[in-house]
Amino acid sequence: xxxxxxxxxxxxxxxxxxxxxxxxxxxxxxxxxxxxxxxxxxxxxxxxxxxxxxxxxxxxxxxxxxxxxxxxxxxxxxxxxxxxxxxxxxxxxxxxxxxxxxxxxxxxxxxxxxxxxxxxxxxxxxxxxxxxxxxxxxxxxxxxxxxxxxxxxxxxxxxxxxxxxxxxxxxxxxxxxx
Length: 178
Known about the structure:
5-stranded parallel β-sheet; Rossmann fold; about 180 residues; two-stranded antiparallel sheet
């Protein structure tokens, strides 16, 4: 898979490398984050933006928050997440805990589906649960990761979700032009 990641990748790459303690990639090959330069005339849309949706009570997203702090917004409720997702340029990625005070990951998926631009949602669960993984994917989540997932798997999920959402947004732009 070729890298299509524009401008904001150095920040995401640094965050992912902090999460994995060094090199980003997976055992099957050399794929890693791109250090591609921003597109000429690029704007804020060229930078990756992520949102963490969690109430702060558990530790499910705390390590992710620490590693992505320079590019992340935080919503403690589904209502706060709705505020971010209704903006003309919503975040590219949403990492959501399974439960918030006013809803669940299913509610976050519904909010993301209504966003004006494509958004990829990754559900973060306490434990690896195949049934929850299938349910989340069936309902529109890009992925489900467990807090016990290995760091390379988390980095791979970040890379895949970001590449996919950039591609989907580019297609949306082309369709609006045509």
